[in-house]
Amino acid sequence: MDIIRIIAAIFLPPLGVFLQVGLGKHFWINILLTFLGYIPGIIHAIWIIAKVK
């Protein structure tokens, strides 16, 4: 299941975070980072997916 989340995080970072943690603070932080720059959103999403188990 993590592979699906990582693929989702590469194409749409907030979706990957949402699949991992739901509509929590990390989701909103990721939306902000994605709007500020696509790459920071991807990095944050992959970090959240790898960190939160």
TrEMBL record:
Q: Is Transmembrane one of the keywords UniProt gives this record? A: yes
- Keywords assigned by UniProt, alphabetized: Membrane, Transmembrane, Transmembrane helix
The places in or outside the cell where this protein is found are: Membrane
The protein's matches in Pfam families, at most eight in alphabetical order, are given as:
Pmp3 (PF01679)
* Main localization of the protein described in the UniProt heading: membrane
Q: Which residues cross the membrane?
A: 27-50
The entry assigns this protein to a family as follows: Belongs to the UPF0057 (PMP3) family.
Indicate what this protein is called per its UniProt record: YqaE/Pmp3 family membrane protein
